[in-house]
Design a protein that fits this description.
The protein is an alpha+beta fold and 307 residues long. It has 2 domains: 154 residues, Pnp Oxidase, Chain A, CATH 2.30.110.10; 128 residues, Nucleoside Triphosphate Pyrophosphohydrolase, CATH 3.90.79.10. The chain is 17% helix and 45% strand. Strands 13, 14, 15, 16, 17, 18, 19 and 20 form an 8-stranded mixed beta sheet that branches. The chain has a 7-stranded antiparallel beta sheet with strand order 3-2-6-9-10-5-4. The chain has a 3-stranded antiparallel beta sheet with strand order 1-11-12, with no helix packed on it. Strand 4 and strand 5 form a beta hairpin. The structure holds flavin mononucleotide. The site of flavin mononucleotide has 21 residues, from strand 3, strand 5, helix 2 and helix 3.
Length: 307
């Protein structure tokens, strides 16, 4: 049988790395291998506290300097620094003192480590090594950022499919459905969200004989719903809530998720509702009742739209 390569099909494993998108770190070091700079797309922030950055390198002057001094600079290239990236990534410190080539790298001295840093980057971090470990065919170097600064006006260069790209300056518009509600409704939802950044709720859809079960909430009627705390299980939380208002259901399949931005005047609240189709076992509630036609509640209508 022909291998993928022999059959003329693209060899997946040969190409898969090209389809990741990364930023590019200019890793600066100073040691017995001299002052050096290399390009490393595998440079990433991996912990908030302590603030850790990992770089994956191969055996080369950069690694030798890091192993010796246990310090390195991370300079995230901005999208006007492709020349620097090409030089830092195209030559080894064994071949040429890259930082000494005139007219390319503008450097400044790091404050906390003895390493040159690069001007004009999106971000600069001075790192002290906390771990070194061989991972696959590269060596993972983890450093704690002892100081870091960024330039709001610079955008990081993106590397993907073997090319350098610019990040678009425009944000992707939210895919949330915008839903106008009354000031009273939005304050109800705000109360429910109890300060959550995004209101996250589990909602029960319980229908019987052409009617739908709604729950009283302050002055209006809504689908039975409950705010779900971070990490809590949606199905269990909904079951408990329904039980607490005298509705005994069997919670069934997930019907879908509705992501909305609720708007009333200038007030906005992001809200995610995960709906469950539920079957009623028994109803002993003064807080819930059947409705044959829906009250004029736009959130309610949106929740009931087909997913
Ligand atoms: C865009 C780009 C990204 C690179 N990313 C990495 C990387 O993440 N890890 C790595 O070991 N080499 C990477 N390289 C290759 C090194 O930068 C290259 O081998 C360089 O010569 C090493 O420098 P040194 O030998 O002076 O230490 C990359 C090269 C380029 C052009």
């Amino acid at each position: 049988m022909l291998s993928l390569k022999e059959s003329g099909m693209p060899e997946i494993m040969d190409n898969v790395h090209r389809y990741f998108a990364t930023t590019v770190g200019l890793i600066t070091t100073k040691g017995r291998s001299g002052q050096n700079i290399m390009a490393a797309e595998w440079t990433m922030h991996i912990s908030y506290d302590p603030m850790l950055v990992a770089v994956f390198v191969h055996e080369s002057p950069t690694y030798w300097n890091i192993k010796e001094t246990r310090a390195f600079g991370v300079n995230i290239a901005s999208d006007d620094q492709t020349d620097m990236v090409n030089i830092a990534g195209g030559y080894s410190g064994t071949e040429i003192a890259k930082l000494a080539i005139p007219g390319n790298f503008k450097t400044y001295l790091a404050k906390h480590i003895d390493v040159p840093m690069i001007k004009g980057c999106a971000l600069n971090a001075e790192c002290r090594v906390t771990a070194i470990e061989k991972i696959g065919d590269h060596i993972m170097v983890v450093g704690e950022a002892v100081s870091a600064k960024f330039d709001e006006n610079k955008f990081p260069l993106i590397y993907t499919r073997g090319n350098y790209r610019k990040l678009s300056r425009s944000k992707i518009p939210s895919a949330r459905k915008s839903v106008r509600v009354t000031p009273a409704q939005i304050s109800q939802f705000e109360k429910m969200s109890a300060g959550q950044f995004v209101l996250k709720a589990a909602v029960a859809l319980i229908r019987q004989d052409g009617k739908i079960l709604l729950q009283k909430f302050d002055d209006s009627w809504v689908l039975p719903m409950v705010i779900v705390g971070k990490g809590a299980n949606y199905e269990e939380t909904l079951e408990k809530h329904l039980d607490s208002i005298g509705v005994s259901p069997s919670v069934g399949k997930i019907r879908g998720i509705k992501r909305m931005t609720l708007k009333a005047g200038k007030t906005e609240l992001r809200a995610n509702f995960i709906g469950f189709d539920c079957k009623l076992k028994s109803l002993e509630s003064s807080d819930a009742k059947w409705f044959a036609s829906l009250p004029g509640n736009v959130v309610l209508r949106t929740l009931l739209e087909k997913p």
